[in-house]
Write a structure and sequence with these properties.
CATH topology of the largest domain: D-Maltodextrin-Binding Protein, domain 2
Mean pLDDT: 92
Number of strands: 12
CATH architecture of the largest domain: 3-Layer(aba) Sandwich
Low-confidence stretches: none
Number of helices: 10
Helix content: 40-55%
Largest sheet: 5 strands, mixed
Shape: globular
CATH class of the largest domain: Alpha Beta
Strand order of the largest sheet: 4-3-5-12-6
Structural class: alpha/beta
Length: 275
């Protein structure tokens, strides 16, 4: 089976669109359509249902997808290995936005200093977003909030965090949770925390900016949960009521993780990196 055809198949499946898959690959749409037809002919199965907004995988396509991702990854990894067996040619880093705000610049600067010939790339999002990126081989390593739930991932390094509930100073706040986008680990923890205490949550509001969340907490709109180093970094320490939670109550370290089957060549360096 041609790995190049599988690469096209994976791109279309990930984008749920032939045109978007073609854009990602830099191919003409007609070229991608032709290759998908060629792959379908070679295995004797239809791989996609054509729908008004794009394509979705057939049952046969779903079965092939997990194998195709693995094959494409292994081929690309082999090419990189052969290009330069000794060096980490490229490192794609995923990070939660919270971690990006407090330590990612120092991390990348130290990496660049020690490995000046390594190409670095950064992708950010929520813990759920970044975890999905690393599970799909889109990033090489990732900073996530909390220990990984997938047994496909291993922890290279753990950064302890002091976690706190943040409320407005000098005023009562409603039980409205202000969070950073859907899929935030801190938001999930705080909801469960109040549920276990038997407290009713009035509603949850998601924002795209950490500064906006803290400003809204300060104004009395609601509550949130974040690491104290982030609150200090963004300059809100003196403006909020900060209730620190002990590790028995809230143990949410930031973990640098990678896939078990895709360990970076510089993993030993990453495990011992201080910055």
């Amino acid at each position: 089976m041609d790995s190049n055809l599988l690469k096209v198949f994976v791109a279309v499946a990930n984008n749920k669109s032939i045109s978007l898959g073609a854009n990602e690959l830099g191919f003409a749409q007609s070229n991608v359509t032709s290759r998908i037809k060629q792959l379908e002919k070679s295995i004797g199965q239809a791989l996609f249902h054509r729908v008004p907004k794009g394509v979705i995988l057939t049952q046969e396509g779903e079965k092939l997808f997990k194998h195709a991702v693995d094959i494409v990854h292994k081929v690309e990894d082999a090419i990189l290995d052969m290009q330069n067996i000794q060096d980490q040619k490229k490192l794609i880093v995923g990070s939660t936005d919270c971690n990006a705000a407090v330590r990612i610049s120092s991390f990348l600067m130290k990496l660049h200093e020690d490995y000046p010939n390594t190409q670095l790339e950064l992708l950010t999002g929520t813990t759920r977003d970044v975890t999905q990126l690393i599970l799909n081989y889109k990033v090489d390593v990732a900073f996530i909030s909390g220990e990984p739930k997938s047994d496909e991932l291993i922890v290279l390094k753990k950064y302890e965090e002091e976690i706190a509930i943040l409320e407005p100073k000098g005023k009562n706040a409603p039980n409205v949770i202000l969070s950073f986008k859907e899929g935030c680990a801190y938001d999930e923890f705080l909801k469960n925390y109040y549920k276990q205490k038997g407290e009713t949550i009035e509603k949850s509001l998601a924002f795209g900016s950490l500064e906006t969340i803290l400003a809204c907490v300060k104004s009395g709109m609601g509550k949130t949960l974040l690491p104290t180093n982030l609150v200090d970094k963004l300059g809100f320490t003196d403006d909020l009521k900060i209730t620190k939670l002990d590790k028995k109550t809230a143990y949410i370290p930031t973990c640098l993780v990678c896939r078990k089957d895709y360990i970076p060549k510089i993993s030993d360096y990453l495990k011992n990196l201080e910055f």
